[in-house]
Amino acid sequence: MKPIALTGIKPTGNPHIGNYLGMYRPALDLMENYQGMYFVADYHALTTMRDAQKLRDLVYEVAASWLALGLDPEKAIFFRQSDIPEIPEFAWILACFTSKGLLNRAHAYKDAVDTNLANNHDPDEGINSGLFYYPVLMAADILLYGSAVVPVGLDQKQHIEITRDIAEAFNRSYGNVLTVPEGIIQESVKKVPGLDGRKMSKSYDNVIPIFATEKQVRKQVMRIVTDSKRPEDPKDPEGDNLFSLLQFFAAPDRLEEIRQLYVNGGAAYGDLKKELAALILDEFAEPREKFNALIADKAKLDQILNDGAQKARAIAKPVLAKTRKVTGID
Asked: Which of 59, 244, 306, 317 has its CA 20 to 30 A from that of 191?
């Protein structure tokens, strides 16, 4: 079998183009040289999710999104994290080789503590153990399948570093049992700008959703923040978030024409926003149809995820068995 490239995504609802450009597309491209493994990280969602039905619905949305955007379950292994009972046991084993200091330095936990301190609250107020333990569960997701590479965004680079630290700590005690993975960050998609120029993120409410209605997509694109320059005024395309988004969707020849309009004058922001909206709608027209069909057939989604879980467990069981044996708990 080819070396494994593993990608997981939390079920957080309708994906946006930042998700697609920064994670979906790079992860799917890896299937040419790797055995792709993709999973819906529903255990991870429990750190914040308290609505059971909403979580179930979001899992289906993520599953339909992957399939609509090009994941082939005949070639890739696609599954739901919670369908792998080996994960919790393996995570506990890894936790016993993970220093508390390492988890203290994890960005998500540090940010939560810093927010509490800034508001004069107890440093751990409202922080559940799942948030603190999150990097260990992520390490289990990666190491249980002997993953060779993991495509991540720049903001998740630390998770790979922590996973590597945990694997190396285990291997120092028992030999080369666990594969130490590499993180892959595509330079061209480190940051996809949102409507306001910040990183595209649902937390900033600055996203362009992929599977929204045509009206919603056009409305979001028209919200892109621009300066007050007139169409005839020269403009600098570098650092302009509208131009940055056009770079991902416009054909090279057309993009150069737009660049010249910026530099020499003639770039009308309203017209370019309409052009960008049309490009995005065209790019995702077929995936949108597939998504709508899949989300209406949850039995099919369940079957695909269940089949993928059986394939994933076939890879996971020998790894867990080996760690049990070397640690003496077999």
From this structure: 59
